[in-house]
Amino acid sequence: MNVLDIQACKTRGEKIVMLTCYDYTSACIVQESDVDVILVGDSAAMVMHGFGTTIPADLEMMCRHIESVARGTSSKFIVGDMPFLSYRQSLSDNMRAIGRVMQAGAHAVKLEGIEGNGESIVHTVKSGVPVMGHLGLTPQSVNQLGGFRVQGRGDRAANTLRQEAKACEDAGCFALVLECVPDELAAEITASLSIPTIGIGAGPETDGQVLVMQDLLGLSSNFKPKFVRKYMDGKAAWLSAFNAYASDVKSGRFPTADESYGQ
Ligand code: KIV
Fold it and tell me: Residue 169 catalytic?
């Protein structure tokens, strides 16, 4: 997969499948799957490090996760999230941060919002780095938005979102994440853009979908927003394996002679 393949999916009407991933072991499994694009999201701060928001993610954290994922994959397209405020500095500092994410193993960067980011996006794209935009619920602005809530409801907010989506395309973004946006608005924006949209909580009409791996696997026990589909009860499966192991150790059933070294 590369940016041309991703664009071709939109042209052919084929859905793009993006999944978050943060570590080597999971990346090796994703490599064998039908997932098209890996997002090393700053949601790592929440699902891998236990923070309540994505704001504590920094460049160091993101680069370590991107490096681990890159070591586990050979042909997946890796998008690296630019962490909180890392692309809101001077143009040269922004470019240094983007350089670090790319050198960690990403094939593209994702950054939230367009207002105030236009110049950086244009410069980044002209420097040969593909940029994925992210509009709607932009979690790094959770304090400004007043919580994790649906965006683009009402005429004014919908209009702003339409304009921002067009501005992302005009700035050179190769794709656009729409997060927590009413389905009709997401469908309209998708139809109006030539670049693909990838939705999360944005209905079925976007050009692709993205989910957080831990949500899809049913590992995030206290988190069940409307848009998440759990494809397995990972928590129950893990618990049952951990308890089977504990029971085997306590009862002396593990390890057996076969699982031990002889003389
Ligand atoms: O960080 C992330 O996982 C994301 C997705 C939810 C789009 O930005």
Answer: no
